[in-house]
Amino acid sequence: MRERIDLAPILKDTVATAYCDLVTRPTGVTVRQRVEALIAASPHPTAQLDFGSIGLLDFSCADEIVAKLLLNHADDRPRFLVLVNVTETQREALDHVLEHHRLTVVALSSDGARPWVLGWRTPDLLAVFDTVTRIGPGDAGRVADALGWTVERAADALQSLALRRLVQAASGTYCPLPLS
Amino acid sequence: MIHVAAIPASFDDRGLDQFAQELGQWPPPERLLVDARGTTWASPYGLVSLLTLGQAIAELGLPKPRLAVPDSDDTRGYWGRVGFFHHAVEYFDLVGKIPKRGADAATDALLPVTRIAAAEDVHEVVGRLQEGATRILTSELKLEAKATMGFAMALSEACQNIVEHAGTGGWVAAQTYLWRRRLGRKVAVIAVSDAGIGFRRSLEPFEAKKVGDRWGDGAALESALLHGVSRFRIAGRGQGLAGIKRYLLRWHGKVSIRSGTARLSVLPDWDDDVPLAEHLPMFPGSQVQITIPAQEASGR
Fold first, then answer.
1. What's the whole-number mean pLDDT along residues B49-72?
2. Distance (Å) from the alpha carbon of B122 to chain A's nearest alpha carbon
């Protein structure tokens, strides 16, 4: 289950402009606060931020909205974030700011292709993320078999994915986030 | 007494140093007459810098300078079309014939001279640039869609520097033109200028001690542009200029920032400018110029 949050109407409520660009830090702060309130009120653990009707996303807004949302995650209950309908240009801005903070997030392009891992990542992290996305829920042994790795290596990478909230972990089983 | 400062015939980033020399002491002890009669060409950088001069003088409470407008009809016409005179009347007593321009007159600029004072202004210029300039950037400069978005992003971040750091308003303009001698290609230029406190004063409380004896306008620019230092001591700040640099590196562009008596540039291989110029004649505030050349087939 997931909460879909469309950023365009929030932007329209935030700034009196005819355009649909997420630019400037003050705009980013206001939009993030609105998103945080929606996430806090949602019963679902996963929130999908929809960039579908957004044009430009600048570095300041990428930092204020996405990086700060990830940094401000409260620890009282697990929360997961997925970015959807992200364009190539938005992806570059997000990658840049998330790498700077050593943060990571899952994103989907509007063409519905395979999900990207944006921001800080390692080859092992990417390989395990792709595997979990492809084969579905499983434990470290299943992922290790699929990749031809040792169980320890797969377990380390899965643990890293879980800590970064790129998969949901429960009792040794790792599930991909709801992407649709 | 009146002090006459002539604007060079070609008024661009290099011409500004010459003009700053003409200004002499800062703040000017006498009323200024800015003489643009012999000016035949001005870049967006020249025009926004000139407005910055007028604004800085007004904010110091000094007598309103006079501005003798260019003799050339073409030059005057261009300054009028890009909205320069519309703003200049607030800061200068204009001397000479001024072309009439309605508020919504057509302009051939990517972005006419526009005042930036608040975040809403940044939204407006970014939206307007994308609305009006994408076709020009893709057809004339052969920029990919991704690069035109990056151009708008660079504009956004450069303008935000005014809102967040200058402590006062500023100006932005963008234009494409042919750099026949310097590059032999068309370029798109964004010029942003503010009459604010400048990079040295903005970063001084945190950086001066760290840098030590070398501290000055040049060192402040290095801290901001090369090391991503921001006066806001919060993780994630200072990424705007870093993002601009990254974009320009990819598209073989140039960024140059002048503040006080120094200018720092991140240079592409086509430019013969010095990376850091210090001990320049003082000019108020900060000026940023971002230049993107038309893409060559091999460079894309």
1. 97
2. 7
